[in-house]
Amino acid sequence: MPTEISPSMSHRSKTIHGEEKVITFSRNVFLPLTFVCQNHCGYCTFRQPPGEGCLTGSHDVEEILIKGEKFGCTEALFTFGERPEQVPGFLPYLKTLGHSTILEYCEAMSARAITHGMLPHTNAGILTSEEMEHLKPLNASMGLMLETTADIPAHRGSPGKAPEVRISMIEEAGRLKIPFTTGLLIGIGESREDRIDSLQVISDLHRRYGHIQEIIIQNFCPKPGTDMAAYPGATTQIMQDTITLADEILPDDISIQIPPNLADSRSLLMFGVTDLGGVSPVTPDYVNPEHPWPGIEELRVLTDGYRLRERLCIYSKYIRKGWYPPGLRDLILSLENRINERGML
Q: Does 294 fall in a domain?
């Protein structure tokens, strides 16, 4: 079992070769195409039943993309509830948009994002290998939170949250050479040993396929009206310990990310954090709408003592390796040049 280590022992320490460590983030727009989901997680307020407003229409997507372009966003994060077609009553609403599947709609909106100079990143819950391969030409990267390898009550009504199902998808993404984001949700009923096991699973997958560019260590935030409203969530100490474990267990080329709108960033950065994830100047965090994103100036304050730098949703290592769709080459290289010209913020 990994030993508890101090921040000064972190592989991803505050200084690297005498220079201040770089903390990265992505400037994005958050686009939930639907809130309908087949899962019934005990902590979720994102999920909605089919009805008016259960889909983000193409006109609304276009307006968000236009705003994102004006604010210099480089990433379009597409999310939606898992397998919404399996929920009775959803398909008629989708068909009013001219699409028969949510992936078909995601494909169309991804193409629109590209025309506005943003790289699509899709996090859509469980997808088959064939579905990922179908989306791959229009996505610079994809993602799926592992959350936990533990069997917990919070996931009992959620077939897509079965650990073996999620691990299988992450593995398939590796076989397809898709730059991938995954992560842990901390404080939902798992133990420290479960977190260690989850981190080890992610580490093993990356050592086999080399595709996991970042792991999110996300603290659960209890929400009124849910089955887990009375849960305490993850303490700062648990987050520090989990980040320390991630720093020790994971290969050094996996970035460790925390959400700056949910976590106490100043008390966590020194434990091995290297990234603050997607931050939007345009859209809210639809999963945690009660926690607004920090602005760029706030990010500068949060990362005082470090160097703050913007990144793309596909990390530079994967750009150099050519792990991107040929059709996105020009846009990726153009955006990479733009970020390089901005330099440190």
A: no
Q: Is residue 293 part of a domain?
A: no
Residue 234: CATH number of its domain: 3.20.20.70
233 confidence band (pLDDT: 50, 70, 90): confident
Cβ within 8 Å of residue 225, ≥6 positions away: 45
Rounded to a whole number of angstroms, the distance between the first and last alpha carbons of the chain is 39
Q: Return the sign of the alpha-carbon dihedral for residues 280, 314, 8, 247.
A: positive
Distances (CA, A) of 329 to 106, 138, 319: 20, 11, 9
Tabulate helix, strand, coil % of the chain (nearest 5): 40, 20, 45
Q: Whole-angstrom Cα distance, residue 110 to residue 106?
A: 6
pLDDT tens digits, 104-162 = 999 999 999 999 999 999 999 999 999 999 999 999 999 999 999 999 999 998 999 99
DSSP type of residue 138: G
